[in-house]
Design goal:
- The protein has about 650 residues and is an alpha+beta fold.
- Helix content is about 35%, strand content about 15%.
- The protein contains 23 helices and 21 strands.
- An eight-stranded mixed beta sheet has the order 1-4-5-6-7-8-9-10, with helices on one face.
- Strand 7, helix 5 and strand 8 form a beta-alpha-beta unit.
- Helix 9 packs antiparallel against helix 10.
- The longest helix is centred in the middle third of the chain and has 27 residues.
- The structure holds zinc ion (ZN).
- Zinc ion binds next to loops.
């Protein structure tokens, strides 16, 4: 049977060419930044040692989860009219892949996943910084290193920050046993596991769905499809794993000697990730900025969604890194993109990165103080010319537009202060009214087609999408909205905007992709997060309609970890209190933590686990069964660009509240 995803990614003959307005917009960019400056291409290739045999990485079962040959169309130097030329240039730079020597004893594997793996050679083994997204790409990256360097063991593993492309492949590099038996230490910034839990467990499902739009994971690579993801080509699919850190970096600046290598850690919490740190290696003068100084404008809030980041703090930690390490730095590396060599150039790069983040923050705040609304700030804000013409500051990932809105949200919330926007009708109801006021769907689409011919794609997308929400079966509305999304995607300099628009176009034309069902969350991820997080995840799945007024208390004893807690259902709300047991609980459950994870993922049921003898209940066993029956299951492929089916009632609820 073919993978439904492969079927979905087949060539799409409904994709259209660039319209005249798109050709003009893309051509107008040709003179802006210095396209003849080749220094990025030189630095992206510097230190090349060798690369993967064919650029295709497969799982044990043969599924290709990384496929560089699919991007051969990027061999052409000039952008086709369907791709923004600035993005095309970045997409070509991100094609550099292989093992690279940064300085003697420090290597990077780039282009075998969205992030880089950095490898430092120690006295007895190697130190790996960031094991990529998936176990198979991580293993391939390490094997590429071993193909050119002595096969010495991994003695330490460092997570630079709490995002999945920097930890998910860990079990491709080391094993639980390596850590348990003390062969490998695992180092992370303080708050690492909490940050992983916060971003990837409780809202893991919608974030994964929105990430499809951000990274273009369901788009076919090509001049009319996915060309890049800004930070790299794409996010590798495959098995995500996690091993909890054995050592946290907790001081603002901490110096460690790891396998004979001195590394100075600089914590940078609340920046690109809630838990993140920079690293400086005095030998060689290597400054590793993790993901806080990459070769583009990063996100204050990515399109996948996140808690809004603090660009003021971000700029502060960039400045602090220069103060602490600038004078000793010979080369600056990151966990994405390519290095910058030479002290003067490092200063220039980091100062401009600092001012990029600070400028967008400060100017957004200035305009907020003048009473401007988010969309007004996003529309008006531009970088000063001395920053705007710098390639490493362009918006391939974040944009000034959505970053300015994130600043507004951070300080003043989603609400723009205008009561007209305080309690608007929800999308379907609002769309029905608006379309009726416009004189019906046909009249609205007739106007929109005229605007399409004039190249006013933003407005056409807005109006046509209203018609889609008013009349989901209206094929003309879907087609026009898709056409407008497509032209917007072709014009976007940001890879994430391009991916979002083109993903939206594809779903309007073909519906939501039906993929092979998968667990709601990675079992590996749940195995590594704090036990309290597992119970938080149970709590956010509770469907009040199925509680039926019941209240009860359950004791949980996890026999392998020794953890105890009481979980209480009251007022249609689940609360857990760790490290205590209720004497008057309705039931007491003892089981292993792994069985609890299986219950959460519905890989077993309370009855099955009891029968198998891996779960024991004292008291009212039916309540434990009932608890899991009250929980929702989340499916990934929900509607985004069209209304949810039955979108006027909450899912799974027996009655409206
Ligand atoms: Zn990353």
């Amino acid at each position: 049977m073919t993978d439904p995803r492969t079927h979905w990614l087949a060539a799409d003959p409904t994709q259209k060419d660039a319209e005249p307005a798109t050709r003009r917009a893309n051509a107008a960019l040709a003179g802006l930044p210095p396209f003849d400056d080749q220094s990025d291409f030189t630095e992206a290739r510097r230190g090349f040692v060798g690369t993967h045999v064919d650029g295709v990485i497969r799982t044990a079962s043969g599924t290709a989860i990384w496929n560089l040959p699919a991007y051969r169309f990027l061999d052409a130097e000039d952008a086709p009219p369907t791709v923004n030329p600035s993005l095309w240039r970045m997409a070509r730079l991100n094609m550099n892949h292989g093992l690279f020597e940064v300085v003697p004893g420090v290597y990077q594997v780039r282009g075998l996943d969205i992030a880089n793996m950095t490898i430092i050679e120690g006295a007895s083994g190697i130190i790996v910084i960031d094991p990529l997204t998936a176990t198979d790409t991580a293993r391939a990256a390490l094997e590429l290193y071993y193909a050119h360097r002595p096969r010495r063991p991994v003695v330490a593993l460092i997570y630079s920050h709490s995002h999945v492309d920097h930890y998910g492949g860990v079990k491709g590099v080391i094993s639980d046993a390596d850590v348990r038996e003390g062969r490998v230490q695992v180092i992370a910034p303080a708050g690492f596991l909490d940050a992983v839990a916060g971003e990837n467990v409780l809202v893991g499902n919608p974030m994964a769905r929105r990430a499809q739009f951000q990274f273009g994971g369901l788009l076919r690579p090509g001049p009319r499809g996915q060309v890049d993801a800004g930070l790299g080509k794409a996010v590798a699919r495959g098995t995500v794993s996690l091993i909890a850190p054995t050592q946290d970096i907790t001081e603002p600046v901490e110096t460690h000697r790891i396998d004979g290598v001195e590394i100075i850690f600089q914590l940078a919490p609340g920046t690109e990730a809630p838990a993140e740190m920079h690293m400086f290696m005095p030998a060689g003068g290597v400054l590793n900025m993790a993901e806080n100084a990459t070769r583009h404008l990063h996100n204050f809030c990515p399109l996948r969604g996140a808690v809004v980041r603090d660009p003021r703090l971000w700029a502060h930690y960039l400045a602090e890194a220069l103060d602490l390490f600038g004078e000793q730095s010979e080369v600056l590396i990151g966990q994405h993109h390519w290095p910058t060599w030479g002290r003067a150039r490092i200063y220039d790069f980091l100062e401009k990165q600092r001012d990029l983040y600070k400028y967008v923050h400060d100017q957004s705040v200035r305009l907020m103080n003048h009473g401007w609304k988010p969309a007004e700030i996003a529309e008006a804000l531009e970088l000063p010319p001395e920053l705007a013409r710098e390639w490493p500051l362009r918006g391939y990932y974040g944009t000034i537009s959505h970053n300015a809105k994130a600043v507004y949200q951070r300080y003043l919330s989603w609400y723009d202060g205008n009561p007209a926007n305080l309690n608007p009708l929800p999308p379907v109801d609002a769309a029905k009214k608006a379309v009726a006021y416009m004189g019906g769907a046909e009249a609205a689409l007739a106007h929109a087609r005229e605007d399409f011919a004039r190249g006013e794609y933003r407005w056409v997308a807005q109006v046509a999408n209203q018609v889609v929400f008013a009349e989901p079966e209206n094929q003309a509305a879907r087609a026009l909205c898709a056409d407008a999304f497509e032209q917007l995607g072709y014009q976007a300099e940001s890879a994430t905007w391009r991916n979002a628009y083109l993903s939206g176009a594809r779903e309007l034309r073909r519906g939501v992709a039906q993929l092979t069902p998968r667990p709601m969350l990675s079992p590996e991820l749940l195995a590594a997060v704090a036990t309290a997080t597992l119970f938080d995840f149970i709590a956010v799945r509770l469907d009040p309609a199925r509680v039926e007024g019941r209240s009860f208390a359950l004791n949980w004893v996890l026999t392998d970890t020794g953890e105890r807690l009481v979980q209480e259902l009251k007022h249609s709300t689940l609360t857990q209190r760790m490290d205590r047991i209720a004497m008057d609980a309705d039931a007491s459950v003892s089981t292993k933590r792994s069985v609890l994870v299986d219950l959460i993922l519905r890989r077993t049921s309370v009855t099955q686990a009891s029968v198998a003898g891996v779960l024991r209940i004292k008291g009212d066993a039916a309540l434990v069964e009932a608890l899991f029956e009250m929980l929702d299951d989340f499916s990934l492929q929900f509607e985004v660009v069209a209304p949810r089916p039955n979108s006027s009632s909450p899912p799974n609820s027996a009655k409206q509240l």
